[in-house]
Design brief:
Number of strands: 15
Helix content: 25-40%
Shape: globular
Number of helices: 12
CATH class of the largest domain: Alpha Beta
Number of domains: 2
CATH architecture of the largest domain: Alpha-Beta Complex
Radius of gyration: 23 Å
Strand content: 15-25%
Length: 423
């Protein structure tokens, strides 16, 4: 019998690695790197018995903990996380825990690779076969049967009070892997999920924020004011605002005005498709900003505006920038940022403004976001450039602080220990 020396060396190394494995307690550990114990080495990429997740234990305090990684059930999927973006909602949770979720594993802009598929699952939410090795993204879980909004208007399931999203789920005694800021994620029964093998890691991490923009665009289109000739304002050039610029450019809008107070973000707005950029800090008062907008809208104001800042003063100003007969989509306030003042006569009645709100997205808008990103790439919009900072999971605390300092655009946390089942 002939033995391949390379194969013998590989077996010896695996045995040594198993021998050196140590059991780590389930108590909290500081943000550090601890290699997990291995459940089995009979598969191409072994599944650990324990794995790590970054837990928001209280406001402004993240801890990297190690937990048992239980076996999945017949209607679940085990995903090895590759990366996840930090959303503004994650920052709100970090600062204030507005949804009273602590302790919680955050992270909903994530993606990873399927490691195990429960025996009862055969395809994703659009009918694609799913198997180990597939790249995957998840959306929302189904709402409860008691939700009257979903019962009587399924198209508005995103408005359910019990809408549940990965990364915003309460911790469970037998499953701590409910968010993407960890090494693994367990996709639970009733979830929508999508196989996206033909996308890069960066684009996959942008599908969730793209779904937010896709939903807002669909809401705006219901006003009948979005078309090729529309002059459209996007106020606020954070990650969602910049994604909004990219998606309306991809949809064919030819006159886009970006408004922000950060010159670097306005430069990126140009790359995403903005034709004009206005820095509101260049104007001493609101009237100066109104005149700047009028200068690029034939003196009349915009046909339509997306308000994406989450700042009450900006939400008040946007009404002054839209022409009579125009419209507004408000999507900047996922949490209560306070009230703003408007003049009902001047801002609403006299102009006959059409106003729509936009809240999160529905599960079927993930495929729309996926195809938007593909189309954006084909026409040369460099959406991947929205990702400006990358941190390993061990440095998630610094990743959050970088976001809090408003550095860059999209901050992502990646799993440096990721191992593909196909490698």
């Amino acid at each position: 019998m002939n033995f391949d020396p390379a194969e013998i060396e590989k077996i010896v190394r695996e045995v040594i690695q198993q021998t050196r494995s140590q059991v780590v307690t389930a108590s909290p550990t500081p943000l550090s790197s601890v290699r997990p114990e291995i459940r089995s080495t009979s598969q191409p990429s072994a599944i650990p018995i324990r794995a790590r997740a970054a837990v928001l234990v209280e406001k402004k305090r993240l801890e990297l903990k190690e937990f048992p990684l239980r076996k999945i059930r017949e209607n679940e999927i085990l995903v090895r996380v590759e990366g996840c973006g930090i959303c503004g909602t994650d920052i709100h949770c970090f600062n204030n825990d507005p949804f009273k979720l602590c302790p919680v594993v955050l992270g909903h802009e994530g993606t990873g690779e399927v490691i195990e598929v429960g025996s009862a699952i055969h395809m994703d939410s659009v009918g694609k076969p799913v198997r180990p090795g597939d790249k995957i993204v998840t959306s929302v879980l189904e709402t409860s049967e008691a939700c009257m909004v979903a019962k009587y208007n399924p198209a508005k399931a995103n408005l359910c009070d019990d809408l549940r999203i990965y990364g915003l789920l309460p911790d469970e005694s037998d499953n701590h892997f409910n968010g993407y800021f960890g090494e693994y994620l367990i996709i639970r029964p009733g979830s929508s999920f999508f196989v996206v093998n033909d996308m890069s890691l960066d684009l996959r991490m942008l599908i969730e924020p793209a779904a937010v923009a896709a939903h807002a665009l669909e809401r705006a289109k219901k006003t009948g004011l979005i078309n090729f000739r529309s002059r459209v304002i996007v106020q606020g050039c954070g990650p969602i605002g910049l994604m909004m610029i990219a998606i309306i450019r991809t949809a064919g809008v030819n006159n886009i005005i970006a408004i922000d107070g950060n010159t670097d973000r306005l430069a990126i707005a140009r790359q995403m498709g903005a034709d004009y950029t206005i820095n509101f800090r260049d104007y001493p008062d609101r009237q100066g900003l109104v005149e700047a907008v009028n200068a690029v809208t034939k003196g009349m104001g915009a046909h339509f505006a997306f308000q994406v800042t989450g700042v009450p003063a900006a939400a008040s100003t946007i009404w002054k920038l839209v022409r009579r007969g125009g419209g507004i989509c408000e999507l900047g306030f996922f949490v209560d940022g306070g009230e703003c003042s408007i003049n009902p006569h001047e801002d609403i009645c006299k102009k006959e403004i059409m106003l729509v709100g936009s809240w999160a997205y529905n599960s079927w808008e993930y495929p729309n976001a996926y195809h938007f990103l593909q189309r954006a790439a084909r026409i040369g919009i460099p959406v991947e450039k929205l990702i400006t900072h990358r941190f390993p999971l061990d440095q998630i605390a610094e990743a959050f602080q970088t976001n809090l300092r408003l550095e860059g655009i999209k901050i992502v946390v990646e799993n440096p220990n990721f191992r593909s089942v196909s490698s």
